[in-house]
Automatic annotation (TrEMBL), chain A:
This is Nucleoside ABC transporter ATP-binding protein. It is a peripheral membrane protein. It holds the Pfam family ABC_tran. Belongs to the ABC transporter superfamily. PROSITE patterns: ABC_TRANSPORTER_1, ABC_TRANSPORTER_2. SUPFAM superfamilies: P-loop containing nucleoside triphosphate hydrolases (SSF52540). SMART domains: AAA. Keywords: ATP-binding, Cell membrane, Membrane, Nucleotide-binding, Repeat, Sugar transport, Translocase, Transport. GO terms for cellular component: plasma membrane. It comes from Thalassovita taeanensis. Coiled coil: none annotated.
UniProtKB/TrEMBL annotation, chain B:
The keyword Cell membrane applies. One of its GO terms (cellular component) is plasma membrane. It is a multi-pass membrane protein. It is found in: Cell membrane. The chain crosses the membrane at residues 12-30, 42-59, 91-113, 153-174, 205-224, 254-270. It comes from the Bacteria. GO terms for molecular function: transmembrane transporter activity. This is Nucleoside ABC transporter membrane protein. CDD domains: TM_PBP1_transp_TpRbsC_like (cd06580). Keywords: Cell membrane, Membrane, Transmembrane, Transmembrane helix. Coiled coil: none annotated. InterPro entries: ABC_transp_permease.
Amino acid sequence: MSTATHHKGQPDTAAPAIELRGISKAFGPVQANKDISIRVMPGTIHGIIGENGAGKSTLMSILYGFYKADAGEIFILGQKTAIPDSQAAIAAGIGMVFQHFKLVENFTVLENVILGAEDGRLLRPSLAKARKSLRNLATEYGLDVDPDAVIQDIGVGMQQRVEILKALYRQADILILDEPTGVLTPAEADQLFRILDRLRAEGKTIILITHKLREIMEITDTVSVMRRGEMTATVKTADTSPEALAELMVGRKVLLQVEKQPARPGATMLEVENLHVTDEKGVERLKGISLEIKAGEILGIAGVAGNGQSELLEVLGGMIPGTGTIRVNGQDLDLTGKHSDGRSRRARGIAHVPEDRQREGLIMPYTAWENSVFGYHNDPAYQKNMLLMNNAGILKDADDMMNRFDVRPPNPRLSAKNFSGGNQQKIVVAREIERNPDLLLVGQPTRGVDIGAIEFIHKQIIALRDQGKAILLVSVELDEILSLSDRIAVMFDGQIMGERLPGQTNPQELGLLMAGVAGKAA
Amino acid sequence: MDYLTILQILDSTIRLATPLLLACLAGLFSERAGIFDIGLEGKMLMAAFLSAAVAYVSGSAWLGLLAGIAASMALSILHGLASITFRGNQLISGVAINFLAAGLTVLIAQDWFRQGGRTPSLAGNARFEPITLPFAETLQSVPVLGPLYHDLISGHTALVYLAFACVPATWWVLYRTRFGLRLRAVGENPAAVDTAGVSVVGLRYAAVVICGILCGIAGAYLATALQAGFVKDMTAGRGYIALAALIFAKWRPWYALSATLLFGLLQAVALRYQNIDLGGVIIPVQVMDALPYILTVVILAGFVGKAIPPRAGGEPYVKER
């Protein structure tokens, strides 16, 4: 949409900033990259899009010298260049911002920036030089960061800036960003895109790896699509559409819009009245929340991360105590006492897909079949006798479940950490939905999940609703809230700012509510 | 308690704190780089034995010191091989080194000297002699400060002064040099160091080697300065106390000095007051001897507060995206 304004009009004769020719890389039997060739022109933002596991990160790791390609050549500005290690990549003017930041948490911004790029054996001169250089970079690119702040005290958005500054300080002309918006709030993502815009205007070349179609359409000049280790297409962004890209990524037509019938709400399933939560530091996180959800209805909670949505899920799921009233099926829940734990909640028919699947949803080193019963492992069906669990039975159930939920690979004996993000999420969703709950709590169901799996998980949630269950959906993705919810409540600063119907609102109005701008008009 | 007694106890504190301090700084370098080292004890013991043996045979305490450093470094590199190159478990490697040293020292000592697993007593130049600092004798008569200078500050061996000089040196290296920045980084987040194009393996080996050198000096001090010769198990848990001091010190050099001086003081007090008569009830000597160890546990359990170890400590670095 906005691409036209940015083209620098590079002549076609200019050498590409980066050219990869015939790159192949295998990890054991898995061919992660197959004969990949790509040309990235200088002064452009080149998107690389593909599902999780398509080989995008492998390709970029080869370019950054983290892996050695089995075959193929790399050209930087027309010069054939060998990149055996990260040092060589840095020397060639390549900087990389990894998905998981490579920062030393208890160092200052300045120390992180100079690490590995110090000028001499003593630190003082390097630090002074970097301080000056950061000031220049801040004015040049709008990258303001307090150089003396300690990394663990600043937010992820700031940390990402530090990563970008690290690359720029090393005079990178080519910047690779791997899934940069995965950890950012929408506002932080917008800021990042403004910075990238600025960098492009200054002539830097940017490779943006993502699986979010919206980002590709918003900021890139050219986009390459990867699927199963192969480069399936490279097109001008202006000449393509999200639908066409999605089809190239997945290899079949994908429904970007969720198909669903109008809700047929039944009796009230969940009633929350005047719910308060105060955290360990004494900060009030929920300031009198009241809401209700009927059977057969999805209530979406929109909001910028950190405005109490997580606490709402956690108090409902029995992970933290609260005060106020919560009724499920007309019966009060215990919010502080003996029955305020996750197990008691599950016994009352409340299933919970937590926001952070790796920390709260799964035990990563455990196998898929073990993970498939956590929270329900005391169920009599899983006991062989007083002492032993019915492992064979659990294994068989897990096998069935994984096939039904299309978890790939469908091997229940693999540990959870060996599945991609989308498939991990399918394991969690399957576990919670399969127990046929009355109320399903879902937090960020598709965070870091690829597009094929998103479609699948959305369908499962709709199907559960159509069986007459109540669903509370918390997501920072407005698109997801808008397309799944039957009603939308917007949270800001521990309060509900208002409720809207998805057909009668738009992202702008919700955005204002999310920022706490609009008044309390229900 | 009169002034001179206090000075004597403090003097003894310095002597006893020296090996703890050296071992603690050794552990600091290693652990700051992300390599846990429970084998300080074994390295000190091996260094103590070899330095005493070489000092006895050659008649030179300095040659003994070099031999002690070499012995300790050999074990350090073994630990490095196991935990850096082969990515083994650092605790197990450290425990193995302790066992190896405990057995090997006695075995070789018996084979060489046939004195029941000890070395012959060292005398003359085979031992580090106390150094009298300038004007110590002349200033002794100055009230208060004179005895302080003469009894407490002057009259230690070269290794004591070296150990205390290591504290500011360690601080300076850690916080003022490029090497120190990278060393601290590699113990916190080796991936950050790796992606910055610096060798994680190289840094960690450097740290382990420095650890070996300092442990070597500590061991040599025990056998050729504090005492006159090697005896079986002469480190007596000092390596572990140094580790406790390291945690107490939150992996910082100046705190390490205070922590080891505290442990040294406990040992000095225990040495001086062997049987305490509390009006009829006599506290037996064994209780006093056990006091430093008991207090180690109490301090670690109760007074450390929140000590955050280097985040990547104990984990071998495996490159990943």
